[in-house]
Amino acid sequence: MENQDEASRGGRAGRWALVAALAGCLVLGGTLMVVPVQRTPPRAAVPPAPGAQALTAVSAGVPAALPDLAVLVGDRERHLRKNPRDAESWAVLGAAYVEQGRRTAQSAYYPKADRALRTSLKIERSAAALGGMAALANARRDFRAARTWGEAAVKADAKRWATYPLLIDAYSGLGDWKAVGRSLERLQELRGGAAVMARAGAVYRDRGWREDAMAQLSDAAAGARAPAERAAYLERVGQLAWERGDREVALRNFREAVRIDPDQRAAQAGQGRALAALGRTSEALSAYRMALTNQPSPQYALELGELYESLGLRQAARAQYDLLRARVRSAAAGGVDEELVLGVFEADHGEPASAVRRLRAEWRRQPGIAVADALGWALHRAGQDEEALRYAVRATDKVHGGGVRSALYAYHRGMIERELERYGPARRHLQEALRINPYFSPLQVRTARTALAALGAEPDVTDVPASVTRQPCRSARCG
Questions:
Q1: Phi-psi region of 80 (alpha: psi -120 to 50; beta: other; left: phi over 0)
Q2: Is the pLDDT assigned to residue 21 strictly greater than 50?
Q3: Phi then psi for 83, rounded to 5 degrees?
């Protein structure tokens, strides 16, 4: 009986202990609900290391910052000295060399890229290394080789999205517009984001769809993650604005691109164009000189030389033309084809017959729209206007892919038609050139105006609004 009483007391004690414990939990819970929880403040996001940023960019085929590229190259070179059979690292190193060459216009990087990429291919025939060879060929303006390498990369891995922008560049250089369209569609199926929008914008620009191109590039710039990538897309936005005569809009975008990435020399040269058109000549000259100091592109030397010539500074112009020739020779030593810019220069400032020979050969290698326009103009300057018109029509005929709204192309066609006494079409195309961009060249705008006056027409270009000659918008973004 006593044992039963003890058990009963023990059971009651246990139940009371459980009740007490539950009550304590409730009190504690209430206390926790009243007292604010002391949380550790979140750590600020740590940006990736420069080499990692460049690796991400190079692997995706998007613009990378020069300092980051230098870190990546140094890291891969050290790694490969210890691990020479690492095919992936050889492919990354080759792609980084290509980007360095493209960003600096220093063709000496391209043989190094070629060796690294071929070493990678000997170890393993990967889509990344094949794509790197396509990028190298595009940088050298060897579009046939770029097409071959790019198509091989697709066969190795059809879902590798970074290959398709390389094929778009190659097909564009060869004037194969159907293949450009197919590649863009496949790219958009595989991937979205800033890089794809930027590529679509470039294709739309070539088709003459200005509003679509501007919408895509503007969204690409807004969505870009890395500063160098965003700066590159802003430069393209500025170039689109420049091509339609929007000097102030172009200048704002070029300046913002340089602010974000001081090594964005294409935007620096773009500032030179816009500032010259605004009559701010001293600033324009300074911008061009800065661009050429760090990226001695033959195209920039030609533009600066023509600006000097328009100012009557012939000796300074000749110095830039000499630099152009030297840069073309240097580029050739690195396997880069600069015959197009040299042919354009020779047609206007050198020997037109030499320009025709060079550009005929270029046309056989890569019959793109830019080459068609340049060859047509060179033939005109050499006195062969009937043949010249065939190429000028091709460059401006949408059926053959010449849909780009180019003031220069329209001007060339109009001047050729004028020489052939086709005065109606000549008047129409010269007026179109000045409507598209009344500032397209510091030298040739004057000639266009004079020719129109001789044809009995006044160019209606006193004030060109931002929306001049825009095409209907085809994208949802334009709304």
A1: alpha
A2: no
A3: -130, 70
